[in-house]
Amino acid sequence: MLHKKSFRDIDLFKTILKELNKYNLSNNGSQIFIFLASLGNKPSNMFSLIEYNEVDCKSTDADFDTQSPLLKKIPDNHVQWIDIDICNNTLETEKLCEFYGLHSLTVEDIINPGLLPKFEAFDNYFFLSLKMLHVNDKGIIVIEHISLVVGKGYVLTFQEIPGDVFDDVRERIIHSKGYLRKRKSDYLFIRLLDSIIDNYGFTLEHIRQNIVELESSLLGKNWRKTDLSTEVLHLKKELNIIRGHIAPLRDILTKIKSETDHFFQRSSIAYLNDIQDQSNYLIHHFENFREMIKDLMDLYNSKTSNELNQIMKTLTIISALFIPLTFVAGWYGMNFEYMPELEWQYSYPTLIAIMLVTFIVMFIYMKNKRWF
């Protein structure tokens, strides 16, 4: 299911369709949705620029042609963070990539992202692409590709659609909270990556809550009214997709620490280790979620089987009660010429009495045996 509201550029729609095809989400009814809110009032040729140091900070929506002089020379002890929506700003993206001397393969990975996270280190910068996940106000999981380029004094972030998980980072920079304004671009990268990983955890918590809600529904009286099997399969599919985004991060973070040590200050390595521990923690939790979903499916199958057994048990008891009655009716339904009791004037009421007594005795016997 794809929610669409407004598109400023046809390239955005084409890119989203391409992402849906990659994940097979366009036709399979998965509950991972890509929700596109309105693109807002920012002109399509603009990008977000935040430049700061320990004592000063400025934030603006800029276009490349008028602001490129500011980018040519980053003042000492300043950090520039440039954030751009690539689907809205294809031309600006190409200009920025060319300006910073990004390798053609990096540009290709930014414009045409792959399925899995990717990391590459170059002489003047390193590149990381991964998926950014968060749950919006409607409880819909938003999945978006993001690319980060980190060099001396600058960080570039390339997003597919407006909206991200970096509001807390922006607030810390603008209001000078924490250590961001006191550190270099490597620390900004760490904070951005940490925000992405944190929201992986929030997304998994959202799925865990869905599992708990399904379990509560399954244990309730109206569990038959919900198509739990379909919802459980959807949850399993969501979990597998998210795992595909998170699992490779463990090796990528190891490569970042080993191949980009000249980009990081020694004090920043500890934060990278913390992010790696957090990613390992999330990967470990996948097994727990898998077990929860498996247990939920087993519980559903068990309840369905028990209900079917109860129905069969009821039908069997009804059949057993009527077997002797059917036998008696069949016996006297035979068309023999000589059956003396048929000539007796009390034969009919006697037969009815025998059948009633037989039925009552069998009913009491089964009740005492707790068969129903």
What key phrases describe this protein's structure?
372 residues; alpha+beta; Beta Polymerase, domain 2; Methane Monooxygenase Hydroxylase, Chain G, domain 1; 2 domains; seven-stranded mixed sheet; two-stranded parallel sheet; 10 helices; 9 strands; 15% strand; disordered N terminus
Structure write-up:
The structure is a single chain. The chain has 372 residues and is of the alpha+beta class. The chain folds into two domains: 10-302, Beta Polymerase, domain 2 (2-Layer Sandwich); 312-368, Methane Monooxygenase Hydroxylase, Chain G, domain 1 (Up-down Bundle). It contains ten helices and nine strands. It has helices spanning 10-23, 64-72, 90-99, 104-111, 167-174, 185-219, 228-246, 249-259, 266-331, 347-368; strands spanning 2-3, 34-35, 47-52, 57-62, 79-85, 118-121, 125-135, 141-151, 154-159. Mean pLDDT is 79; it is low at 1-17 and 22-45.
The number of helical runs is 10
Q: Give the termini distance in whole angstroms.
A: 46 Å
The residue ranges in which pLDDT falls below 50 over 5 or more consecutive positions are 1-17, 22-45
Shape: rod-shaped
Please state how the strands of the largest beta sheet are arranged side by side: 4-3-5-9-8-7-6
Rg, Å, rounded = 34 Å
Name given to the CATH homologous superfamily of the largest domain: CorA soluble domain-like
- Estimate the strand proportion: 5-15%
How many structural domains can be distinguished in the coordinates?
2
User: Based on helices, strands and strand pairing, what is the structural class?
Assistant: alpha+beta
Task: Report the mean per-residue pLDDT as an integer.
Answer: 79
Q: What's the helix-strand series?
A: EHEEEHEHHEEEEHHHHHH
Amount of helix:
40-55%
